[in-house]
Amino acid sequence: MGLLVEGVWQDQWYDTARNGGRFIRSESQFRNWITPDGSPGPTGAGGFKAEPGRYHLYISRACPWAHRTAILRALKGLESMIPLSVVHWLMGEQGWSFAPASAVVADTVNGAEFLHRVYTKAVPDYSGRVTVPVLWDKARGIIVNNESADILRMFNSAFDGIGAVPGDYYPENLRPEIDALNERIYETVNNGVYRAGFATTQAAYEEAVEALFETLDWLEARLARQRRLCGARQTEADWRLFPTLLRFDLVYVGHFKCNLRRLQDYPNLWSYTRELYQTPGVAATVDVEHIKKHYYMSHKAINPTGIVPRGPLVDFAAPPTRRF
């Protein structure tokens, strides 16, 4: 797990010592937006008009941040408009690679062997972490955006006028509620599992785990009285939470020591996760092999032996138990 410094790759783990053992996630640096007419979005510059075949998405099947973009791409029927490359599950000395393996999809746009070369093709002297997802503009030969939250919003609406499947996952009347949910869930759950897993002091770990399970308890109570996070309909908030819940028992309970309770110990959250998994098109975005091998074999600071556990056995296809 490394980063680029003025365009030069360095294999470097996170420095938590200067933050009291706390993991601090870097901010995404590419924040342009695809819009229906190419006008500027909420951040960045304009010039990125929604056009079929113009853009390319780089993801990891293991990464929850990339997973959420793959889900919206499927739900909105953007597969033919926005082709996909999938990195290898192992994040090695050169970071994400396109080494041949099951379910890896090579970089057909830039022919890169490693994802960091996509970043330096866009910005030769780039400094920062090399993360997925990456949304690439083939017309201009640059990265549009590498922030998953932004890409979700683009996929939600930018392509609606040129053939995307109807469906609004960020409806105007629910935006304040969605934004408030996203803020808490990102800090304590999506990023919270990493704050626990990458902590290097007991205090930092305890802080993260306590906040994580407080929010999971709160979500369990919320889902006891309604089908989705914002009521009856699926929204962006559900699809931002889902990739973390899907990985919870598979890797976060064991690998990241998030083991006060399993997801399967929460009846409502567990049923809700299966309901989302069984949404048409979603199961095809899940690759359990990539998920487990990535976490257990890439994070040598946490699991130096690289041994991947056989379990747990998690049946996401089991019938949901909630009734609304």
Report on the structure:
This protein has 324 residues and is α+β, with helices and mostly antiparallel strands. The protein folds into two domains: 3-162, 3-Layer(aba) Sandwich (Glutaredoxin), CATH 3.40.30; 172-279, Glutathione S-transferase Yfyf (Class Pi), Chain A, domain 2, CATH 1.20.1050. 35% of the residues lie in helices and 7% in strands. The strands form two sheets. The protein has a four-stranded mixed sheet with strand order 4-3-6-7, sandwiched between helices. Helix 1 runs parallel beside helix 3 and helix 4 runs antiparallel to helix 6 (202-222). The N and C termini lie far apart (43 Å).
Short summary of the structure?
The protein has 324 residues and is α+β, with helices and mostly antiparallel strands. Helices cover 35% and strands 7% of the residues.
What topology emerges from the helices and strands here?
Elements: E1 3-5, E2 8-10, E3 55-59, H1 64-75, E4 84-86, H2 115-122, E5 128-129, E6 134-137, E7 142-145, H3 148-157, H4 175-190, H5 192-197, H6 202-222, H7 236-252, H8 267-277, H9 288-298
